[in-house]
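Problem 12. The chain below contains 359 residues. Write out its predicted structure in token notation.
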Amino acid sequence: MEKVFNNKINVLKALAILIVVSGHLEFSLIPMFPPYSFQVMLFFFLAGMVFNPKYGFFEFLKRRAKSLLLPYFLYAGVYLLITAAVAPFVGKFWGMPVTFENEFLMPFLTGHQLDLISPLWFVPCLFITLLIYKVFSGVFESAKAPKPLVAGFYLLLALGAIQLQWYSENINVLWLLRSMFALFFIHLGYLYKNEIEGKINIFSYKILGFVLILQSLLWLTNKDFSPLDGIGLHFLLVWGQYNNWIVPVLTSLTGIWMSLFIVEILYEKVKDWAFLQKIGQNTYHIMANHLLVFNIITYLFLAFKGISFDVKNNSDIYWFYFPLKTTYFYFIAGIIVTTYLGEFLKFAKKKLLLVFNKH
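Solution.
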């Protein structure tokens, strides 16, 4: 399920998933850069960094279906069983009614057919967006389109998605608006890997100063910040909701640059940290399972405190117990458990393959 990268990409993947998990606990891992202002776009950027144009469309489709959709639907099947099994104990079915449409079509429209794996909405979205990018890349290559024109095209798509956000309540359109915005960041990742990394130094302290000044100015446009939650300046690609016609693009750029900068300056110090490498190699499993771990912790807290499980049923799946004291416990426990769960699943997969190969 996870391709192993023994380089900066793997460390960047680790940072990206840490940012996602921190965002679901409503705290910012990088001061000034709220998770929801760039976290999803960082993963699209990463997808662009590893995009390989050498494969034909159908070979590319096959590979992406195997690496993205196969584990997605395996997880969906397992979590459907888990959701049904725990419903009598917690007094709530965490998901939509079980129908063929909800289980097999809804993943590509919203990805929220089951609450516990709702963070995995990103996977079918990434699959669709990569296929679109593959088609566009072939067209631009055949036409020998100038690189600035290609980048401008993707930028216009992103800005167009923001302008069309009023249609995002229609789930039959939502998937397209997501991809329109995300294509620009896949292309940026591809450009960075092939045109910038190792060739142009974009990590000077002058650029750092510029990014910090720009980010501070972007905060002036913020409409939802509260000192109580500290999350402001965010937008929600998942629902096609934005806070400004240009700010989502700019905050995505500043957040991605800051993430790259952090990895650049820390890489030599952390590259041999085995657990960090494991985090980067298990991002799929961490994404899929951290809400389950969070909810297990929540119900253990409730049981220990003698609080009825019903108290949680009026809140969404992200509700957790006493955030003022427990947020960072959830974060550390969630990362450790899901990382080693991913390691266990990969180990079990290897053992099963050995058994099948012998027979």
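Discussion. Confidence is low (pLDDT under 50) at residues 227-231. Students who got a different answer should revisit the alignment rule from Section 12.3.
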